[in-house]
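chain below, 248 aa
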Amino acid sequence: AMLQLGGTPVFLNTENLQRKRGESIHDTAIVLSRYLNGLMIRSFKHSDLEEFAKYSTVSVINGLTNHEHPCQILADIMTIMELYKTKTVEALKKIKIVYTGDSNNISNSLLAISAVLGLDFTLISPKEYSPKRGILNKALEYTSSTGAEIKITSDINDAKNADVIYTDVWTSMGFEAEEKKRKKIFAPYQVNSELLKKASSKCIVLHCLPAIRGEEITEEVMDKYENSIFTQAENRLYVQKAVLLYLL
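prediction:
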């Protein structure tokens, strides 16, 4: 996105920075702010992102944390509006969005944007993997003013009449040790042809990728709905451009 806009991206990981030698985020953020016009941070720990934002004097973009993935969700909303040919939030409110699987940074951000925009959003997940109470309560604070219809359930049948079915991998970063356990627990929440029979006839399927075919989504569904899934991937580029133009 930066290159296409004429900017110069600089990729820095822990190995390229003095962070690996013990430099604080406070110092790193201040120094990078003197060199750059903006920072996009991808970090497992959300608290690291917040600390960068606290001490940086340039814009800080959340590229992904274990808590949120807002840039992805902006691309998701763009994709839904594009494929359903809606141009207003009011029209978007009539679309039933269902997420099935692990409550993670994707579902947290979907929950947040649905609450803020007043959307119809259902999150289907095993009870022990439901959103954390603090995340849910923060989202619910908006519903009275926006009219959002938020439902948290463990019943896969609540995908009935879904206009959008969204899923993500069952084992996110940091939970690799639970992979075998998660495969068993999440099996009933797979996006497959049987689940799509419950959805509306015009339903689209979304996945933020990369997908593990045969786990959270079947090969058949992945191929059948590749247009919506890969349009979603493409739209990430356009959303990043929009964010950069807005901030810089």
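Residues 14-65 form one domain. The radius of gyration is 19 Å.
thats it, cya
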